[in-house]
Every structure is written in structure tokens, then in C-alpha cells.
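Retro notes
What went well: the complex prediction finally ran end to end.
Inputs used:
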Amino acid sequence: MPTLRSLVPVLVAAALYAGLAAIVTNSYYQLTLTLVLVWAIFGLSWNLLSGYTGLVSFGHAAFFGLGAYTTALGQIYLDLSPWLLIPAGAVIGCLAGLVVGIPTFRLRGHYFALAMLAYPLAMLYVFEWLGFQEVTLPIKRESPFAYMQFSDPRLYTLVALAMLVAVVVITRAIEGTRFGMALLAIKQNEAAAEAAGIDTLSWKLRAIALSGAIAGAVGAFYAVVLLVVTPPSVFGMLVSAQALTVSMFGGVGTVWGPLIGAAVLIPVSEILHAELGARIPGIQGVIFGLAIMAVILLAPEGVYWRVRDRLRQRRAGSPVTDNRPAAVEASVVSFAAPPLPARERRRTGAVLLSVRGLSKSFGGLKAVQNVSFDVHEGMILGIIGPNGAGKTTLFNLLNGFLRPDAGQVIVDGRDRVGERPHQLARAGIGRTFQVMRPFLRMSVRDNVRVGAYLRAASEEEARRLADEAVDRVGLRGAADRIAGQLTTKELRLMELARALAGQPRLLLLDETLAGLGHGEADEVVAVIRRLAETGITIVIIEHTMQAMVRLVDHFLVLDHGAVLMDGEPERVTRDPQVIEAYLGKKWVAHAHA
Amino acid sequence: MTETTRHAPTRRTLLAAGAAALAAPRAFAQSPAEVKVGLLVPLSGLYARPGSVMRMGAEMAVDHVNKAGGIKALGGAKLRLVVLDCGDTTEKAKNAAQRMVAQEPDLVAASGAYLSSFTLAVTEVTERARLPVLTLSYSDLITERGFHYVFQTSATAASQARQALPLIMRLAETAAGKRPKTVAIITDNTGASVASAKPMREGLLKEVGLDLVMDETFTPPLSDATPLVQKVRSTRPDLLFFLPTVISDAKLVLEKMNEFGLSQGRIPTISFGIAIAEPDILQTISPSLLQGVLTCVGSWATKGHEELVKELKARFNEPWMTQNAISTYGDVWVIRDALEKAGKADKDAVAEALRTMDGGPSKYFPGGLIKFDQKGRRVDAEMTVVQWQNGIPVTVFPRQLAVAEPFWPKR
């Protein structure tokens, strides 16, 4: 739950807003005050799904419209009060979220966005076909309050404000916990999130259900304010766009974004409409459009982030760059000394991972062919091979991203083929990626915490596990820095820490040394060795051999998807077949000479 | 909102009150120099064009009322039109209405808001603010909510559906000398067209003794009208109901009819609503193709409006006077009559005057009286049949309002 302190700015803003609403007696200005809140809540609902997971929804009007029709039809046919129908709208929105989410989350990126677009458009026609082109909420002259038909428009603003504060508290509560972390992880890299043990589908479904519920509730309230519900006014393209506009203007992925967006855009558009609409009809749309374009150009991620980055820069000033490497190097430097001490080779422990006859083809390309090997507890296995040898495909088969055509992946004596990545992560297989996907705006500590939720039962424990992992890779001094300020080496270490925070027994490292300078690679190698000392089994992919020779206990050489050789580092580096695969035939003779 | 008991005044008390008001010395009448009348219509977005035509009608009427001496009961006070843009969405219309009642508290009445859904939203606001609103919108729902401050000058949609077919039958009989027997329907599947075609299929045609020989529904946009028109040619109906929404579809079908020798009224083609008779349509379809096409609309410039049409043309360069212009023109005159009757520039008094007035036969709306029933609907409101003749849609029916003879094939 968000602490009371973190809610202070929100509560202060709400109190000021309520104060403003109380002194506004003009019913038109009051209506604008109400609508600002309506669109802010709708923006927050959109933000909860799209802002945090990065899955852009062009169809939030579907939930909004269902909520609006819940109020309208519920009052007309069942004579229920909006006081009941608003919660009912939330329930319907929530269910609609699940119904929409289950099939649609199979899609990604643009395809998801476009599929979402279809739902409100389809519903628009369904409601027209059902004969609900124009539905008005019956006027209640006897008991207006019971039917939320206040004669004092200030009450609408207060109801909306209460809803907004509730939604902000919910959003805040999500932001700081594993729910929010899971969504952020999905946004950055869904594959990596799965690998870190996050059941992405279930979190996404929770997000869309909650988002749908909020949209449904605010849609239900909107019907009370508008009094007339037509399919275009609640399912229309402009409604979905409104959620995007306020969020993108204000800032995506933060609770403040939709609030800022709605507070600026709605009154501006109303003022333009009121002042210019009757004089130069149409000009209001042009000015509004240009203003949004200007802001998007100046602050592409939204006003909030722009202002925040500015303030941070000013507060931090220049010394940021100066103090950065010291802390990290202090803990790593001793290992960077040129010749690394020889490591006692281990390959005798119990077999942790056993791969048998693993094969995978993509069309005619045999990416992995009949690969078998064993990984003993505590050893470091290096998988090498030239580019395109099938190394990353092999990893993807091991941690469940791909399903093999044939073969077994036996972890602890159990065949795990067919399990999803987050399940394998739970079974103790951690992984890093060739292409780094840090959460750039989050601190190192928070980045690592995402991985810790795999094992942590509470926020407290997640924090502790994250801190431990940060210590183990030697990043303690940098723990509070923003990931966006780190060097490549530090980022690699941070990714390592994120995988470690999930307490894996087996760590799959995909080209962890890529892109590092000579000295830097040695530092990372030192960290990996230290991890191995503590009993973590490691499988590492590299296509360069130098750094690996001193690191690993055993090599597996792949070429064209098949095992070329399986042996000790000394043997492998002298093997003519390996040299040929890497350097071409003429170097074989050279090597023998 | 608490409603004070509404006592229906008898005619006698009203006459007495009216006489008293007239008899009162002018100096005692509260006589503001200006009386504000609202016009809330779409001036931006998709419906800006019809909205601006409504504004033309309103401006002309205000000038005419003022030139004729203003509101005599108020010492010759002049009308002033307050124009507000209701935009192109229900929400914008509702906001604009809220703005109207909040910023212009001294309005005595208003007219608006073109689309039924806009009028529905607008009147939710004006009802609560007790501001009387006159509207040309058709939807029955507008006057079915038990509201006391909304007045519908056109025949409602349901009433038009009942009136249109007998009207067409009478027109055919007068023009051709015999009753049509067979009918074809070509309609697109948009909401408004479906709403018009459905009751015809489900009994209205049978009631007037028409046999439906062809019934085709298409999804806009049409890519080729040949199969549709071929069917029309082979079934040779006495009447064709053609209900397009998209102008390009209308164009395709009319062009094909022309190609097949079915146009120029050889098969009387009848549409519903104002879309096919708006001046804009000439930008896309040549007037020769439209020759003879009929449409049933709630109101149009009719006999006796010749001067108005001329003025509209001279002042605003509008080629003819559609429902939007003439109805809004009429609204202002109704408001003026109500002000005369109320004797004070007060919205509640004007509303009461509208509820109780009996202005005799209507001058600017087809048929019926300047009198509103319990629901706020104009009593005995009729509709008009308009036909394209030589590049202009003119009223051809009912007889007493027609400005031209209907053009009908005599077979």
C-alpha cells in the first residue's frame, strides 16, 4: 500500500480542487470541472494498462461505453440508481476486460493496438442495431438525490473527485509493488519478464481487468453527467482518443500524467470552443491540434517527464559523471589484475541439467540438431561457436521461449519441455539477454527488485533479496543511481544482479561479455567466477574465446546447430575442427605449425 | 428539482390576462431594449453546414421581427440573437447548452440543435434551467420524457412514417391519375435508412395496398450499382424507395438508372429526409440525374415563402430554402408570438405562453396549427414532398403548399 506520505501531494491537490469547485457557482464552469475529473480518471484507466505495460490500447471506449450503457439501461429498464449502477459498471468493465484480454493478449505491438481498436467500433454498431441510438436518463423529479440528479452541480464534481482519489490510490498502490514492477518489466521486455519468472499473461489480465473496471465505473458516471447516451458519444473513436491524448500529453506511465493532461487540455478545449466556436467555427479544433503537436514535439514523453528530467538535471548538476565509477571499481578492482589465478575445475557434482537429443528447425533451417550435454552442479559451462551456430536458440529452448521439435530438457531429474519461461524460472533457471533491456528510469536497486519477486513473499523480502544481489555483483555504490546513467559494464552487472535476485540454481548468461572492453570483460569474468564459488551453476554463451578460456570448466562448441566438440578448454582451443569452424581452413595448418 | 403545481389556465382567464396586459399602459410594462433569443446549432465539425443554414434562417427572422416593430407587448423591444456552437458531438452539445444557460441567464427562449441526439442532450440542460427550446429535430423521444420546456415544430419521426406513404399515394393518384400497385426498395444498412425501411416492410406498404416486388439492402460504399438497377428494370415497379446515406452511392445508382433509361422520373424515385435535397449534393451529382427525384421531409419552403427564398438567395447566396432555414425562421416567429402573449421578457412566462398559445394555422411549417399539445408537439404537424425539378428541389405536395406541379410519368 502507498504510505500516507506518498499520497500527501495527491490529497493536497484534491483538497485545492474541492475548494475551487466550492467557490465556482457558474454551472458551465462547474461542468468543465467535473469533466476534467472524468477524463482524468479515464486517462488513468488507460494508463494502468497501456502506460505501465506498453501495450497501447486504442479501444478503451469499449469499457467506457459499456459502463455508460449500464447506467442508462439500468435506470431505464430496472429503475436502479446510479449509486448502484456505477459499481455495476465497474464489474461489467472488469469482465469485459477479461473477455477482451484473453484472446487479444496473444497479439503484440501494433497488432494488439489495432485489435483493441476493433472492440468499441464493433460495439458501436451492436448498440445501434439493438436500437439504443439515443438513450436518455429519465428525469427524477421526486427523489433526485437517490438518482444522483443533483440540482447543485458542485456535487457532481465532488463525486468525481472521490472517484479520482480512489483511482489514484489504487494506481499508486500498484506502482510501488510487484504488480507495478511486473507491468513495467513487461513493458521493457516481455520475454525478459517471463524469463525473470513473471507470469506475464496473468499480470496483463489483472491489469486489463482493473483498467476495464475503472473505465466502466467512470463511463457509468459520465452517463449521469451527460444524461444522454449515444453510441458515438461513448464508443466513438474520439472517446478512445481522449484517453490517449490526456495521458500522452501529461506523461505516460505515471499517475500524474493523465491528471496534468486532463487539467490542461479539457479546459483549454472548452475555452477555445466557447470563445471562438461561434465566431470562427472550426478554428478551435485547429488551435487545439497545433497545441498538442507542439507539446508532443517539445516533450515527446509528456509534460510530467520533461519537467521531472529538467528538475533532476538542475538539482544533480554536473558532478553526476564524476563520482560514478569509483564505487563499482572499489569492489571489483582486485580481480582485474591481469593473470587470473587458475581455477579448480569442477565437473563432478550431481547433474543439475541434462539435455538429451534436443532439436529445433525453423522451416528448412536446422537451428539446433540433436544436441546433448550435461551440466554438473557448481560448474561453469561455456557454449561457444561462430555467429549463427544456434547458441541463443539453444538457450531459448532451455528456458522455454521455444518448444523443441524433439528431445528432453531434464532439470533435477524432471523433463521440463513444454513449460513456460516463468515456470522454468521458478524451477531455478535464471537468464540474462544478449540485448540488455534495463528499466532506464528506475534505480539500480528497483531494477534488481523486479527479479526478486520470483522468490520474495513480501515487499520487505524483495527489497532484501535485491540488496543482496546488488552486493554480490559489486554494484552497492551505484544502487541508487538511475539505470539510464550506467555504463555498459555496469548495466551487464545489473542484469546479472536481476537474474541473481531470483535465487537461481542455474544461470544462463547470453553473451554477457559482449561489447565490453578488455579490462571491463575481466572484471565481469571475476564476478561470474565469484558467483560460481558460491555454488551457482553457470552456462555462458560467447562467440569470442579469449575471455572464456580462463573462466569456464568445460566447453561445448556448436557449429551449424550441432555439437562440434565437448571438452576441456585446453583441448578445445587446440582442436583443428574448432579452429576451422572459427577461422577457416588455412588457420588449421597455421595452428599446427 | 421540485415542481410547483401546474394549473392549466382556462382560455377565459388567459384572454382576461391578455386583455389586462394589453390594456396596461405601456410605461408600466417592463420593457427592456433588447430581448435575447438563443440559437444553439452546430457551426463546427461534420454538421457545420446545416447549422449555418439554420443560423441564416434565424438571422433573417430576427431582422424581420425587428423591422416590423419588435415585440409590441414590450414596448417595441428588439430581438437579439445569441448564437452558440454546439459542435459535432453529444458531449459538446451538452457543454454548449450548459454554457448557454450559465452565461446568458436572460435568454427567454432558444432554438436548436439540428441532430436529434444533440437536441436530446441540450434539452436535458435547458429543462433543468427552465428555458423553453424550439426544435426541428424529429425524434419522438424528445417530447416523450415528460419535459415542459421543449417544443417540437416538425412532425415527429413516428408521425412522419405514418404520414409519408399515404401522402405519396395521394400524390401519385393526383399526378398520374391512378394508384401505384408495386414498389421496390433499395436501401443501405445505416441506422436511419433501416429505421425508415423497416416499418414499411412490416406493414405500412400493405396498409396502402402496395406490393413489394424488390427489396435490396447494401452496405456502403457501393462499388457497382448495375445488379441493383438491373433488378429495378426487370421488376418495373410503380415506385422506387431509394434510401442512400452516402452521396457517392446515390450518384452511382442515379447514374446507372440514367444509363438504363429509368431516370427523369420514369420510375418515380422517392427518398426520405433532407440529405438528397441539400445544395451540397450538386457538387457531386449533376442536376440532370436528379431530375424527378422525390423526397419526403418535415418542412420545406412552400407556397407563400417566395420572398424569403429570394432574400435568402440575395443575402446568403443559398440557391433554395431547405427545412433548416425555413423551420428556424419559423421558430423565431413562434418565440415572438409567445413573447407578445407573455407580455414580459421572462423565460418561464414565455414557456407558459408557448404551452397555451393558439396561433391559428401555421405559416412557416407545413400544415397544422401554431399550438402545442401536452407533450410539446405542434398540433397536426404535416410534412412536405419535395421534387427535383430543373436543378432545384421544390415543394410539390401537399397541394395547397406546392410551388410546382409534381412531375410523374403518365403510363
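What we learned: Chain B has twelve helices and twelve strands.
What to try next: split runs per interface for comparison.
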